[in-house]
Specification:
The protein is an all-alpha fold. Helices cover 85% and strands 0% of the residues. The chain has 14 helices and no strands. It is globular, with a radius of gyration of 23 Å.
Length: 295
């Protein structure tokens, strides 16, 4: 009867040996190639440092003006633009300007990297079913893996710092843009593709002049989700040295500073709302524009 109660698990010694074997292999790999990987990611580190210095060392009225201009051009909404300016002014007034700019620069760089990697993968998945079947399980693992687990391998390979945090954020946030790009292209009407074929369009002409423009609203929804996940992961990545609003939150948790945690948490919420509203409104404007163009 005990055999039905006690699950027939691997023995403790065997499990311990398996863990030691895997950990030892990963440590050996990190010792052998860790320095090479660090040099490989040097351009990204320089890009991140440049964007961080640009936001933190530029005059704050200029930064707010540029962000407000971007919000207006994307949303064409006075309400969203004024809300963006007021949110940034409130963040600065309560002494969180520098940390907020560091967080915004990290999100910007991570989003750029995620788009540069994710968009081509999504396009390729939309063209080859076999690639989609191969990539989907990996995306499932990436989306369901606890976010803290991502910190372990990147720290072992790259150590504590900006680059390790950036890689963890990108891996955590990239699945939506891949999935939505693939989905958006696959949802394009076959009638339109047949019409493009009838006019003698090449594969690349169909992709860039028919499929991608029509899939753009769906892709924008994926970009929106990638930005939101990047912001969520940036806070967690503060555990491995990523600077920004996450570090004061972590300090507040460790020392039970309620007000510090609340203020920085509200600043994160404010930044998230700005990104969300601007990107969503831009996606809706894009959808209406394409409906008018394609009737």
């Amino acid at each position: 009867m005990s055999s039905l109660v006690d699950f027939p698990a691997m023995g403790a010694e065997q499990l311990s040996s398996l863990r030691r074997f895997i950990d030892g292999g990963f440590r050996s790999f990190s010792r052998e190639y860790g320095e090479t990987l660090e040099r490989l990611f040097d351009p990204l580190r320089e890009f991140l440092i440049f964007s961080e210095r640009l936001l933190t060392q530029s005059p704050w009225p200029v930064v707010i003006g540029v962000i407000a201009l971007i919000a207006w051009l994307a949303s064409r909404s006075l309400k969203i633009t004024v809300g963006t300016v007021l949110t940034l002014l409130a963040i600065g007034y309560f002494g969180m300007w520098i940390d907020t700019m560091k967080t915004v620069s990290m999100i910007f760089v991570c989003t750029v990297v995620a788009l540069a990697v994710g968009l081509p993968i999504g396009i390729a998945m939309s063209r080859w079913d076999r690639l989609q079947r191969a990539v989907n399980p990996a995306l499932d693992v990436m989306q369901t893996m606890p976010s803290f687990v991502y910190l372990i391998p990147v720290v072992m390979l790259l150590g504590i710092g900006r680059v390790a945090g950036m890689i963890a954020v990108v891996v955590y946030a990239i699945p939506p843009v891949i999935r939505f790009t693939n989905l958006g292209i696959r949802l394009v009407s076959t009638d339109l593709l047949e019409a493009a074929d009838a006019f003698g369009s090449s594969i690349w002409q169909k992709m860039f002049k028919v499929q991608l423009p029509l899939a753009l609203p769906t892709i924008m929804a994926g970009i929106n989700q990638t930005i939101m996940l990047s912001l969520a992961m940036v806070v967690i990545a503060s555990m491995i040295g990523v600077q920004g609003l996450g570090q004061p939150v972590l300090k507040a948790i460790a020392n039970q500073y309620f007000t510090m945690g609340m203020f920085n948490g509200l600043a994160i919420v404010g930044i998230a709302i700005i990104f969300d509203r601007v990107s969503q409104t831009y996606g809706k404007r894009l959808q209406k524009h394409l409906e008018v163009v394609h009737g």
